[in-house]
Amino acid sequence: MSRYADIPKPIRSGIVVVNPDTGTPQRIIVLQFNPDTLERSVAPQSAGDSGDAGGGGTGSGDRNEALRLKGPAQETWKFTAEIDATDQFEVAAPDGIHPQLATLEMLVQPTVAQLRAASKLSQKGAIEISPIEMPLTLFTWGSKRVMPVRLTELSINESAFDVNLNPIRASLSIGMKILTVSDLPAGHRGADLYMAHLAQKERLAAAARGGGLGSLGLSGSGFGTATASGNNVVIGRG
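Predicted structure:
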C-alpha cells in the first residue's frame, strides 16, 4: 500500500458542454492540470457611466444614476492550461494531443452539419439566416464556481511533437466571459445557472466576518457629515 494513499485527490477544473433544452451534459472536458493562477476582471454595469467624463465632477451624467446598476457586473476570466501526453504514459495517444486540442477548438467552431445546413438555406434563397447557436458551455472551478461562459480567447502554443508531428505538449491561453441574465434570453437554462452562481456569491459574502469602524481609525455611529482635521477624519451624525 502506498504511504500516500490517504492524501485526497485534487478536484479538477473543467468545461461542461450542456444541451440548453434538456440540461443534459453532452461533453465533459477535464483539464489535465489545474492552472496555477486565475486572472479575473469584474466590471460593474453602472447606470451613470455613459456620461461620466472623469474630470472631477465635470461629467454630464445624471447624478441620480451614480449609484445605480443597469444589471449584473461583466466578469471575465483568463488562465493558462497545460496539456502533456508524456505525463500519461498509461494512456494510448496515437494522435498525440490532437483530440484534446480539437475538443477545445470545437467550443468556438460550428460543426460541418451546421455549416452545410446554413449553405443549403442560402442556396434555396433564404433572405435571412439566423446565426448558428452553439451549445451552452459551463466552466467549473470546484463546487462553488459553476457558471455559464462564452470562450473569447483560445491561443495555443504547441511545444513538442512526436515522430509523426503530432503535438504532445501544449500551453493554452484561455479567456472567457461569464454569461449573465443580461446576455441570455429570459427562460434560458444558462440564465438560471447564472442566478445560482450569483446566489452562491451572496452566501459566501454573508459568511465573511464584518469589521468595525475602530479598525479604520474612525469613530461615530453614523455617516451624516464628515469633517477633516489634519490627518484625522471625524464622522458625526450631522
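Summary: The radius of gyration is 25 Å.
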